[in-house]
Specification:
This protein is mostly helical and 225 residues long. The protein has two domains: 6-64, 434 Repressor (Amino-terminal Domain) (Orthogonal Bundle), CATH 1.10.260; 88-224, no CATH class. It is 64% helix and 0% strand. The chain contains ten helices and no strands. α6 (97-119) crosses α10 (206-224). The radius of gyration is 22 Å and the shape is elongated.
C-alpha cells in the first residue's frame, strides 16, 4: 500500500541520517533483507510499518508516500509562500495561479543562484543564466504574439524563426552545462545537497522548490507513463 516513490524516500531518509541498512532494519524491527526489498521497491510495506518509519525519521506519512514535499505533510497555500523582494506589483488580479507559480519559480531561482554563488563557477553561472533568460524570452514572445496587432518591430529576430533559433541556442547551452556539471561531479567539487540540509539552509524558500520539483515530476510522469 506504500505507493510509488515510497522506496526512494525511504532510502533517502536513511542516507540522510547517515546510518546503514543493518542499523535501520534493527531499529525498525525488521530484517535487513526486508528493508532492502522495501528500499528497492521489490515489496510493498503495510500501514503499521509506514507509521513506524514516519515516527522513526520524524516525518509525515504524506511525505513518505510522496503526497506532500513538506516533511511535516503540510500543503502550501499561495498566501503562505514568501516572495523575495516582494513589492506592490507581486499580486495578480483574478486567478491565484499566476501568483502561486511566480512565487514557486522566484523562490526556486533564489536558491539556485545562491548555490551557483557557492560553486563559484563563472562559466556555469553564465550558461545557466543564459538558458533561463532564453526561456523567458521565448515564452514572453509567445504571449506577445497572441495579439497579431502588436508591433513586430519590437524584436530584431522575425516571428517565424525566433522560436527555432531560441531552441537551437538553448540546446547548445544545455550541452555546455551538461559537460561542466559532469566534470565537477567527477572531481566532487560541490558540497552534498539533501532535502534535510536544504530545509535547514533555506527555511523560507525550500518549500517552494520542493513543490516545484513535485509538480514537474508529476507532469513528466503523466506524459511518459
Amino acid at each position: 500500500m506504500a505507493g510509488t516513490g515510497f522506496n526512494r524516500v525511504l532510502s533517502l531518509l536513511r542516507k540522510e541520517a547517515g546510518i546503514t541498512q543493518k542499523e535501520a532494519a534493527k531499529n525498525l524491527g525488521i530484517s535487513q533483507a526486508l528493508l532492502s526489498h522495501y528500499e528497492r521497491g521489490i515489496r510493498e510495506c503495510g500501514l503499521e510499518f509506514l507509521v513506524k518509519v514516519a515516527d522513526y525519521y520524524g516525518v509525515s506519512c504524506d511525505y513518505l508516500l510522496g503526497r506532500s514535499p513538506d516533511r511535516s505533510g503540510l500543503m502550501l497555500k499561495v498566501e503562505d509562500i514568501p516572495l523575495p523582494d516582494d513589492k506592490g506589483d507581486a499580486r495578480y488580479r483574478g486567478s491565484v495561479l499566476p501568483t502561486l507559480n511566480k512565487k514557486l519559480i522566484s523562490n526556486s531561482l533564489n536558491i539556485l543562484f545562491d548555490l551557483l554563488q557557492e560553486i563559484s563557477s563563472k562559466s556555469l553561472t553564465t550558461n545557466i543564466s543564459n538558458y533561463l533568460m532564453l526561456s523567458v524570452y521565448k515564452m514572453y514572445r509567445g504571449v506577445y504574439c497572441l495579439n497579431k496587432d502588436n508591433p513586430s518591430d519590437s524584436f530584431s529576430i522575425p516571428d517565424k524563426v525566433h522560436s527555432r533559433y531560441s531552441d537551437a541556442e538553448m540546446s547548445i547551452i544545455e550541452a555546455k552545462i551538461g559537460v561542466e556539471i559532469e566534470e565537477k561531479r567527477e572531481k566532487k567539487t560541490v558540497n552534498s545537497i539533501t532535502p534535510k540540509n536544504m530545509e535547514e539552509k533555506y527555511p523560507l524558500y525550500y518549500s517552494s522548490l520542493a513543490n516545484l520539483i513535485l509538480i514537474c515530476e508529476k507532469m513528466i510522469k503523466r506524459k511518459n507513463g
